[in-house]
Write a structure and sequence with these properties.
This protein has four helices and seven strands. The protein has about 130 residues and is an alpha/beta fold. The strands form two sheets. Strands 1-2-4-6-7 form a five-stranded mixed β-sheet, with helices on both faces. A two-stranded parallel ribbon has the order 3-5. Strand 6, helix 3 and strand 7 form a beta-alpha-beta unit. Helix 1 packs parallel to helix 2. The chain starts with 12 loop residues before the first strand and ends with a helix.
């Protein structure tokens, strides 16, 4: 029987290319320590011009103001490069943090990665 290793890499971020989009997953507890570790990979993943970037918070267990800073940084970098950032956030507590930070207008949280990828695909095909 073949075993599939679905373990997360060491750290709090995984970046993949899926259906022409850059998908950035945050994992675990996103706090000041995690933010420092995530920042270089996040910047590298948001460098390409004109990309659709999906930030998926589904695997997140804890999220604070440092997580908000990461999201805002990613969105700014993507927008400066004429790209589009989509946010996957099914967690009620993180949605509360986004509302408290007056960021719901800046981000439109989607419930699933599939929803985000479908929206990106429909936008790309016009």
């Amino acid at each position: 029987m073949q075993q599939v290793n679905n373990a997360w890499p060491i750290g709090h971020i995984r970046v993949q290319q899926v259906d022409g989009c850059t998908v950035i997953e945050f994992h675990g507890e996103i706090d000041i320590a995690a933010a420092q570790q995530i920042l270089p990979d996040l910047d590298a993943a948001t460098t390409a011009p004109g990309r659709t970037v999906v930030v998926d918070l589904t695997p997140v267990e804890f999220f604070d103001c440092y997580g908000l800073r990461l999201l805002c940084r990613a969105e700014r970098r993507v927008a400066e490069r004429s790209g589009w950032l989509l946010l996957v956030c099914p967690h009620p507590m993180i949605l509360r943090i986004l509302r408290a930070g007056h960021l719901i207008g800046r981000f439109t949280p989607l419930a699933t990665r599939e929803e985000a990828l479908s929206l990106a695909d429909s936008e790309a095909t016009g």
